[in-house]
Specification:
By secondary structure, this protein is an alpha+beta fold. Helix content is 53%, strand content 12%. It folds into two domains: 5-152, GAF domain (Beta-Lactamase), CATH 3.30.450; 173-230, Winged helix-like DNA-binding domain superfamily/Winged helix DNA-binding domain (Arc Repressor Mutant, subunit A).
């Protein structure tokens, strides 16, 4: 019996943690869309320990390099490659034969893009169509609800375990995330990639943060925020 959308909705809702989601639900998503490869990715859980994997992911998932990723990041909506580039251009961007057709959708939690669903097909397989996008959109809605619930219970903490959360009533939660990355020595470009926003958005956010905190440098900002946290 083929997997149905209702089955997937129920399975997502019943998943107890990320491991349960990956073992019980993700394979069924691949089965439903009849794809070659598939996966659910949470950006703060990506395997960055291996430098080769890290480099490949940073290039392949870059909003500057990959128009499918850029679409998902900017619009929080599902997309397949044929809607943003021609087949010829796509083979230049992604030459892998098992990624000839690609579809991706967003996982959103608390207004932020925290992950994505990805499916790929080979050239000999049918391309993704509008019905596939509609079905992926429904699946992403349930995954986003699940992720928001899990994160609210600290199953997937937004901060790294070794990272101390800065606090300030004058900054938004997104601005505090940027401040924490600044404190870790990240550049604007690195912050943009880690938070999946444009580098210019980071620059503009820092300008607003400087005005709010009445500081003129990154170091002064971090020192003030740490001072508020400890006071």
């Amino acid at each position: 019996m083929a997997t149905s959308l209702q089955f997937l909705f129920s399975a997502i809702n019943q998943a107890q943690d990320e491991q349960d989601l990956r073992s019980q639900v993700v394979p069924k998503i691949g089965e439903y869309f009849v794809v070659k490869r598939w996966g659910v990715f949470f950006f703060d859980q990506l395997p960055f320990a291996d430098n080769n994997i890290k480099k490949a992911l940073q290039i392949g998932l870059s909003i500057e390099y990959n128009p499918v990723v850029r679409y998902v990041v900017e619009r929080h909506a599902p997309i397949h490659e044929a809607l943003v580039v021609s087949p010829k251009i796509w083979t230049m961007i992604c030459p892998r034969p098992d990624h000839r057709h690609v579809m991706a959708g967003p996982i959103v939690s608390h207004g932020q893009l925290v992950g994505a669903v990805g499916c790929t097909r080979e050239q000999s397989m049918l391309a993704f169509d509008s019905q596939n996008l509609a079905d992926l959109s429904a699946i992403c809605l349930h995954l986003s609800t699940w992720a928001a619930t899990m994160r609210s219970h600290t199953v997937f903490p937004l901060a790294k375990p070794t990272q101390k959360l800065l606090k300030s009533d004058r900054l938004t939660s997104r601005e505090l995330e940027i401040a924490e990355l600044v404190a870790l020595g990240r550049t604007n470009a690195e912050i943009g990639k880690e938070l999946w926003i444009a580098e210019n958005s980071v620059k503009q956010a820092l300008k607003r943060m400087f005005r709010k905190l009445e500081v003129s440098s990154r170091a002064e900002m971090v020192a003030q925020l740490y001072g508020e946290m400890l006071s």
